[in-house]
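Quick one:
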Amino acid sequence: MLVSVITICFNSEAVIRKTIESVLNQTYGEIEYLIIDGASKDRTIAIAEEYTERFKEKGYVYRISSEPDQGIYDAMNKGIRQASGKLIGMINSGDWYEPDAVETAVKAYEEDPYDLFYADINLIRENGSIMVKHSKMDRFPTSRHWNHPTMFVTSETYRELGLYRNEGIHDDFEFLLRARRAGKKVTIVNKTIANFVTGGASNAKSFAKCKKRCLDRYRDYRINGYSRLAIVECVAIEAAKFILS
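Output:
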């Protein structure tokens, strides 16, 4: 089974190596790896190109593209459109997979085919401390127990439900809401398969940004049929990020 892995990046020369090498060092044998760059002005592409021969030796398909985009979800959508795999995962620049991440997702699919999969993740704070964020299926869906860098989705599910809306910072979570609303089969494995460095756009610490993220998340709930009470969850999430970040 071919698995496509997508890394989106922009001016990522300081962090891209760790991400690329985490894919190169996967234990699973059939991977297509796509680097989707937003026309970086630094050495991101030059660094990515250094790995071409190593991916060829490993037997992985490796493709790099670089052009301006309309934000992170536009870049993700470009990657999905180019992907050939039955399963599609995303690990953004600066984050990295555990060596058996893809193998874990494939094994879960082979045991019981799913539409969407996710697992546990290590949250890496600026001071170097690590917190494991566990995944589980909540009756009321919340990002507190969901981790996008661990998510694998079948190509068929993307074709049926559409891609990311590219309208807000939580469009990845909106896709999960969309999948659950459509009754898609979701599989969760309580095993850490990825590492996420905190402090990005989804954690920026200012009242204005917290408010915008809260309203974006609330909109995502509402367009997927949830009640106005979802605002409570939205506020709680942002309050927790503000305190813990």
